[in-house]
């Protein structure tokens, strides 16, 4: 019951081939036209008779495969033309003239599929633009017309069927390409009928000894096994009929050698202990019938609980749906049974190849839609991935690495997204396994929680008696959990933890994060600022914010953003005036500037009005400015985007007046305040003012306060500057100081 086929003989007789396939008359005439067209083109290119026979046989083989998938006539025509076109023996203009523009278009799309070969030995750093362009065209072709990839997969099957006559190097090269690229792609597209054969044929060439051993084991008791299955099928058919389930199609299903080998490897079992060597499939009319039939089977046969899988309720990543169960049949022999609807069967066997049949019928099944939507995503990658390596990496990741399949110590398969960790695995097995996890082993060795699982690994979770998840697992940046589902389970756990513990934990988390980011606030200041933000977090007290952080309901980054926003706007009230650092000369310069401002700022077209620079935003020449008429102090000059100005305008819009910098705006210099945050040490202020003095910049004033808990000094310094480059230079120099955390204009 091994599903492998023989290739055609070396010679090719179109009439005999057409008769064997029982082609409808329309298809026969069109394909005969293709055959004659290809032969004429090959003769014109002076190709030898052996080439003509080989290409005709290959075309016929591809068509035979496509017909089992119910592909349309255009697909069959393109399949007949493709081998000769790939051999550069066809003129595309002649193809269009003879068969039409649609055939030419589809033929080119199949040609685009050859770009998938670049994924065989992918090296992101060495990918050429030509390779990337070909992959982009391939993606577009797959999205635009799924028939192109189906035809290419069929062509690969035809090629590997014929590879038994090739030399060993060629056979192995073809087999590796199919095992690594085309079989996974067929699986991703849900075309089981092609996937199985691609896998088995590649396996035969790559691991011939294992292949022969399993084939021999299957063949030894084949007659006895087939007789048993035949009797089991008859009994099951009658059992279903007697229980009111009519019209079920029950039959023994062929076993695929590669899947048997994979299961032996995965479960560490010899052939004799496999459960599903005897296999039966039941095709029914509806989902309800599937579950009814399952109930009948479980009521009449003892079943093995751990071998039960409901892929109808929980489809596989590629959309596959069926119910799998294993029962003890007559003679206590193990039989695997699959239940599925007719639509599910068609989707499992044909995948996206069913797209055109459904399309013609006016509606798509959900399985087809899922795969077609995945293909459409490829088009978005084509536009988004600009760099060579990114495009190729992403395509291979999505086709071959989008899921990882790992095993429990009992051999059960756990399906997880790429990047999943042992903790994701633990929570997938059971919520309490995750909560009680204190360590993990992968293939027998201890690994960290952040270890990225790989397909085929066996994972063992080490647990303790009492649940004790860590709050650190919630933070995605820490890399403990990949899946949002697992993270939600951790969050739900901490929601149930005592409120006071959440408050304390949240307070500690926030304190650590404030220190890590160098925000110069003590605990009282943090609490005071958060009190102003209660409505923002939809809570009633500051403790509610801490509890939210501790429980994972409030993201720490949201709270930090609110604090940084508040700190940026605040004005320091605890100022330490260090006028000893201000020279008499500098004080005199500051006084003289009052009489010179009229030449620096033009208000409503006049340069002789009394003005002053607003302390809240301290605009400098080059900033967009707006004037606001004050009572008794002339016109206050603000930055156009000053938050305080917005409040003034809202109350007294009539006081706003057009203002701009005059020609002498920068000639007399301007005042700027900078804020320096640095680790506190003796001599810090001296070192900072020395850097400023070396840049020949005058200090007008200094205000400082110290965060004793964090050992940080926050210093505001008023500077007299001649131009903006001077400001940029001094800020750069300050930031280069070892103890300085930040230096910026206020």
In short:
With 746 residues, the chain is α+β, with helices and mostly antiparallel strands.
Structural description of this entry:
- The chain is of the alpha+beta class and 746 residues long.
- The protein has 6 domains: 14-206, Orthogonal Bundle (Hypothetical protein af1432); 216-360, Beta Polymerase, domain 2, CATH 3.30.460.10; 402-494, Ubiquitin-like (UB roll); 497-569, no CATH class; 574-596 and 668-746, Alpha-Beta Plaits (2-Layer Sandwich); 601-664, no CATH class.
- The protein is elongated, with a radius of gyration of 38 Å.
- The termini are far apart.
Indicate the topology:
Blueprint: H1 14-21, H2 25-44, H3 49-68, H4 73-86, H5 92-99, H6 101-112, H7 129-144, H8 147-162, H9 168-188, H10 192-206, H11 208-220, H12 222-242, E1 249-252, H13 257-267, E2 279-284, H14 287-300, E3 309-310, E4 323-328, E5 334-341, H15 342-350, H16 355-361, H17 366-384, H18 388-400, E6 403-407, E7 413-417, H19 422-429, H20 431-435, E8 437-442, E9 445-447, E10 459-463, H21 484-495, H22 499-516, H23 523-531, H24 542-551, H25 556-569, H26 584-594, H27 597-600, E11 601-603, E12 611-613, E13 625-629, E14 635-639, H28 643-651, E15 656-657, E16 659-661, E17 670-679, H29 684-694, E18 698-707, E19 712-721, H30 724-735, E20 740-745
Parallel strand pairs: 2-5, 12-14
Antiparallel strand pairs: 1-2, 3-4, 4-5, 6-7, 8-9, 8-10, 11-16, 13-14, 13-15, 17-19, 17-20, 18-19
Helix pairs in contact: 2-4, 3-4, 3-8, 4-6, 5-6, 6-8, 7-17, 7-18, 8-9, 8-10, 9-10, 10-11, 11-13, 22-24
